[in-house]
Amino acid sequence: MKVGKGLDIAEYCISSGFNGKSNETCYFTIREEEVCNWQHKREDLILKYTDSKDLESGICVDKKGKSIGKGIKDMQGFCQYKFEDNPSIRYRKNNEAKEWRCEMGIDKNVVCIWQNREPGLIAVKDKDADTWQCYHPRKQ
């Protein structure tokens, strides 16, 4: 039996601390200065790129532009720090958009349970509308 409306995956992502939904993931856009400051335990750093086409070329610098060494060494650690209750969190660089992201795969069954506050629901794709709906599982 169908339960509630279709899935609101974007709302699930936002309520979980992410910026939104992209394809099959929830994503959080990383502010590079936040990673520099987290990694070096400071509050005055920014990330400067030495090559505008290469996200790996960033170095952490202070407000006067003085480098404090290499750039970001542990983006995965930062994502785990931001989403400590989520062991499946991963980082990904997006060279086209020139941004780093923390991402989490979306379990649509979990979204059903969260959205309807009812355990045991399953998500089923509606073939005609290309949407996802929540259902009670069939009893055997």
Strand order of the largest sheet: 2-3-7-6
Helix content: 10-25%
Number of helices: 4
The rough form would be described as elongated
Q: Whole-number radius of gyration?
A: 19 Å
Give the rounded overall mean pLDDT: 88
* Beta-strand residue fraction: 25-35%
Quote the distance from N terminus to C terminus: 14 Å
Q: Main sheet, how many strands, which sense, barrel?
A: 4 strands, antiparallel
Low-confidence spans: none
Count of extended strands: 9
Helix-strand string: EHEEHEEHEEHEE
Query: Pairing-aware structural class of the strands and helices?
Result: alpha+beta
Description:
- The chain has 140 residues and is α+β, with helices and mostly antiparallel strands.
- 24% of the residues lie in helices and 29% in strands.
- It has a 4-stranded antiparallel β-sheet. A 3-stranded antiparallel β-sheet has the order 1-9-8, covered by helices on one side. Strands 4-5 form a two-stranded antiparallel ribbon.
- Strand 6 and strand 7 form a beta hairpin.
- The mean pLDDT is 88.
What are the SSEs and their pairings?
Layout: E1 2-3, H1 9-15, E2 20-22, E3 25-29, H2 32-40, E4 46-49, E5 58-61, H3 75-82, E6 90-94, E7 99-105, H4 108-116, E8 122-126, E9 131-135
Antiparallel strand pairs: 1-9, 2-3, 3-7, 4-5, 6-7, 8-9
Descriptors:
140 residues; alpha+beta; 4-stranded antiparallel beta sheet; 3-stranded antiparallel beta sheet; 4 helices; elongated
